[in-house]
Amino acid sequence: MNKVFFLLAGLVLLLVSTAAAGNVSVEVVADQGYIFPAYPVSASPGNYRAYVQAEHNARYGLRIRNHTDRRVGLVVAVDGRNIISGKKSYLRNTERMYVLEPYGVTVYRGWRTGRDEVHRFYFTESSDSYAEAWGDQSAMGVIAVAVFAEKQRPMPRLKYEARRYSNQAAPAAPSSRKYKSKSAESAAGTGYGEGEHSSSVRVEFRPEPYALEKHFYKYEWRETLCRKQIISCSRPPRNRFWSDDGYAPPPPRY
Questions:
Q1: Taking CA 151 as the corner, what is the angle to CA 146 and CA 153, rounded to the nearest 5 degrees?
Q2: What pLDDT, in 10s, does the model give residues 126-162?
Q3: pLDDT at residue 176 is higher than 70
Q4: How far is the C-alpha of 84 from the C-alpha of 6, rounded, in Å?
Q5: pTM of the predicted model, to two decimals?
């Protein structure tokens, strides 16, 4: 079974989640198993950016793969919110993070709301998103992953703890705060979906101070990607030997 960890003040927790590109590779995957189309727009050393085509109401996860022989720490933010703590993320090494084992792969499927539970990611209007419920539109529609190498040092025996972490996990989105606008309604966001079981365990992990690399995925509805000309949505030319009308039209000037 794939396992992952998350960090608080230099200590981390183990979870079921997914992997990323370069040193890690990142894919946005549907529950049915297919990968949401991605369209790279830039790639520089340590910095990867792409658009992703989102589908209305689709549940999704982030499949992240570690291509190295070392553990790596992953600060993951969706719509600018850390998916473990629920707090505004700045992709820093002091934030809660997942730890991915050497050559490991995991799928992260939701906002962590306790040691044994996450609430599912799903594509929705930004006005229905988890971030919008907190009044935060600062990074709407962006999935971000910062990858931190582990500091080299002798590894002590891991000590697993049975303590619960619900007081440190992502809080439920407040139902009383909704910030709707015409522009927000048309944009894509990630909602706070149904809960599901997902176990976690605390382990020790000390990250390097600076990210090894960062990944950014701007997800948009297909119509938005068409309008921005990220994808080609023009209709194919009509075939003169294949009419969909089914009937002979009257001759010109009839």
A1: 160
A2: 999 999 999 999 999 999 999 999 998 665 554 433 3
A3: no
A4: 8
A5: 0.76
Interval 225-246: pLDDT, tens: 999 999 988 777 777 676 666 6
Supply the pLDDT for residue 164. 32
Q: Please list, in sequence order, all residues whose beta carbon lies within 8 angstroms of the beta carbon of residue 138, skipping any fewer than 6 positions away.
A: 80, 88
Instruction: Please state, in angstroms and rounded to a whole number, the distance separating the CA atoms of residues 109 and 106.
Output: 10
Biggest CA-to-CA distance, the chain = 90
Q: Where are the alpha helices (DSSP H) in the chain?
A: 130-133, 182-186, 222-227
> Dihedral, CA atoms, 101, 102, 107, 108, nearest 10 degrees?
50
CA angle 190, 65, 207 (to 5 degrees): 90
What's the token pair of residue 136? 């935060």
User: How far, in Å, CA of 210 to CA of 189, rounded?
Assistant: 28
| 233: its two tokens | 């949505």
β-partners of residue 72 are 100, 149
Query: Tokens for 53?
Result: 């085509």
- Under 8 Å CB-to-CB from 127, ≥6 apart: which residues? 178, 179, 180, 181, 184, 185, 189
Mean of per-residue pLDDT scores for the chain: 81
Q: Residue 62 is encoded by which pair of tokens?
A: 């982030």
- The 3-state DSSP class for residue 128 equals helix
Tokens of 69: 């022989």
Answer for the pair 227, 186: CB distance below 8 angstroms, yes or no.
Answer: no
